[in-house]
Amino acid sequence: MVKTHYFNAQSLELAIQEVLKGFGCQEQEACLVSQNLVLANLTGHDSHGVGIVPRYAESLREPEGLKVNAKLETLVDHGHMLGLDGASGFGQVIGHQAMQVALERAQSFGSCIMALGNVHHLCRIGAFAEMAVAKNMIAIHFVSVLTRPIVAPWDGSDARFGTNPFCVGIPLGDKAPVILDFATSVIAQGKVRVAHNRGESLEPGMMLDHQGDATCDPVFGVKPPFGAIASFGQHKGFGLALVCELLGGALAARQTLHEPQAQRRIFNGMLTILIDPSRFDQSNQFLQQAHAFVEWVQASPPAAGSTGVKIAGQPERETKAQRLENGIPIDDQTWQEIIDAAASMGVDIDKVNHLVGLKP
Ligand SMILES: NC(=O)c1ccc[n+]([C@@H]2O[C@H](COP(=O)([O-])OP(=O)(O)OC[C@H]3O[C@@H](n4cnc5c(N)ncnc54)[C@H](O)[C@@H]3O)[C@@H](O)[C@H]2O)c1
User: Fold this and answer.
1) Which of 179, 168, 155 is nearest to 231 (CA)?
2) 212 within domain boundaries
3) Confidence of residue 350 (pLDDT cuts 50, 70, 90)
4) Residue burial 261-298, b: 16+ Cβ < 10 Å; e: rest
5) What are the tens digits of pLDDT across the range 12-24?
6) pLDDT at 132 > cutoff 80
């Protein structure tokens, strides 16, 4: 039986900040990264929450891995088209800075296309779409992942690319925005790690073993000999993953995954398109039509065993409300991995445990 802690969000944020400061991050970087990771846990995406910190510690040790306190650099500036370089920095910080610049441009020009490369793990892409919708902007993100290949192409039997996420944010005025944000693999890689740490099996059809045979054992996504995760949606999901690699990778990051990679670092490339809907909408038809459609689909009678139609972004808001109330569940193995990573970087682990209310 796996032991689970329930941590208060604010306490967990402070504890992770302490770990990141121990990694060499300046105060503001430690705050941004920690807030972003805890928000991923709050929204139910534990795969992209604080459990990823040990992987970041490994990446920091690699010669061409993650760099602390990096600054965003501009490579190309055509006003409404930006080419940016993340200097191998934390995706949570570089991505935030890049979105701030791109949103300013979209406010001036009505739209902006931003290409970002050479950035470490951007984590939950929905966080960037949320920045956009908060400014009444539509955001579309195509993202590639540069790391060890872990996803098999449709009709293939070994891993050839990453979990290439796709995300769209649509602001809906006084109604909750649409935040569609998912990995193009049938399951996010971090969710395979979470299942493994919790001692759970995967559903059939999600994983291939190292010989290309179907398996439900998440170990093939966590330890060698590695297998591959299936792409979602058969040939259609594979097609979207391919497009993410070509736009987020070849175009935005100027790099694609086409050879085995042994490193632990996770780099992303991201092509972002921002659109100010008000520039198209002289007679306020957009919100009227969007609200009418959302209400129409939600009025569909619930299917057997379901609680009714949800709009993308709604499950995350519901989980956040529930976890703010009841705490964020972190299994003991995941917490221990964080503490071990912190200790290996010379962090005061008694202080970290104390911050989440655990006795040294
Ligand atoms: N940075 C990276 O390299 C990287 C790689 C892969 C994934 N990710 C992130 O991982 C996170 C998790 O991805 P995932 O594929 O596991 O997500 P997921 O399978 O949980 O799907 C999430 C999306 O589906 C919507 N959704 C969920 N249940 C729904 C329902 N019942 N009805 C309607 N909509 C519903 C959610 O609102 C959300 O938009 C994402 O935030 C993604 O950005 C990041």
Assistant:
1) 155
2) no
3) very high
4) eeebbbbbbbbbbbbbbeeeeeeeebbeebeeebeeee
5) 999 999 999 999 9
6) yes
What's the pTM value of the predicted model, to 2 decimals? 0.95
Question: What CATH number should be reported for the domain holding residue 25?
Answer: 1.10.1530.10
Distance 166 CA to ligand 1 centre (A): 9
Centroid of chain to Cα 340: 23
The whole domain housing 239 covers 73-185+231-316
How many independent structural domains does the chain possess?
2
- Residue holding tokens 């395979």? 192
Residue minimizing CA distance to atom 3 of ligand 1: 145
Burial label, 3 (beta-carbon count in 10 A; 0-12, 13-18, 19+) = exposed
Query: Would you call 126 helix, strand, or coil by DSSP?
Result: helix
Local confidence band at 1 (pLDDT 50, 70, 90 cut-offs): low
Best CA proximity match to 330, nearest among 54, 92, 125, 96:
54
Pocket test for ligand 1, best of 120, 181, 229, 265 (most atoms within 8 A of CB): 181
* All residues at 6 or more sequence positions from 68 whose CB lies less than 8 Å from its CB, including other chains: 23, 24, 25, 26, 29, 60, 89, 90
Residues 334 and 295 in one domain: no
